[in-house]
Design goal:
Helices cover 67% and strands 4% of the residues. The longest helix is centred in the middle third of the chain and has 97 residues. A two-stranded antiparallel ribbon has the order 1-2. The chain is rod-shaped, with a radius of gyration of 55 Å. The chain has 163 residues and is mostly helical.
Length: 163
């Protein structure tokens, strides 16, 4: 049995034809089988009606498949672009952080030098004071030895206990 659409011209249109025009064309076709319903009207049996040519179905499926593949490629391209952007951002951030760390080191070294300049005279003074302490301690030790030679040895006093 030939299908109804093989006899009819078929083309994909960017704007669909009006629904009632297509219905009228199908309703008037002698090749479409009809079945009676309870209300004495006729109805087209859906199992016998093929509105799209199998070749056009394959073309439509291929088009959809190509569109899906195109979308997947676009998503992957966008992801790749995002990764490149993040990598570039990371490189810029590393450069900025490195520069800021160098500036901080420079500031720290300047502070260290200023602190060293302030501490140097104070450390020199402490060093001189310690030298004087060592000298005075040595002199005191000598004086103690000389004085101990002048004094008689300490006498041992016996204590008498009262009886």
């Amino acid at each position: 049995m030939e299908s109804f659409l093989e006899d009819q011209p078929f083309s994909l249109q960017s704007t669909p034809q009006r629904v009632d025009e297509g219905y009228e064309r199908v309703r008037k076709s002698p090749q479409i089988q009809r079945e009676d319903t309870d209300d004495n009207s006729t109805r087209v049996m859906p199992s016998r009606l093929s509105l799209i040519n199998p070749q056009d179905q394959r073309t439509s499926i291929n088009n959809i498949s190509q569109d899906v593949q195109s979308l997947i490629e676009k998503v992957n391209s966008n992801r790749s672009s995002d990764l490149k952007m993040i990598d570039h951002f990371q490189e810029q951030m590393i450069a900025l952080v490195t520069e800021m760390c160098q500036q901080m080191k420079s500031c720290m070294y300047s502070i260290y030098e200023a602190n060293s300049a302030e501490m140097q005279p104070k450390l020199q003074e402490v060093s001189e004071l310690l030298e004087n302490c060592v000298k005075v301690s040595g002199e005191l030790e000598e004086a103690n030895q000389e004085l101990s030679g002048l004094l008689p040895p300490p006498a041992v006093l016996e204590r008498t206990e009262p009886k």
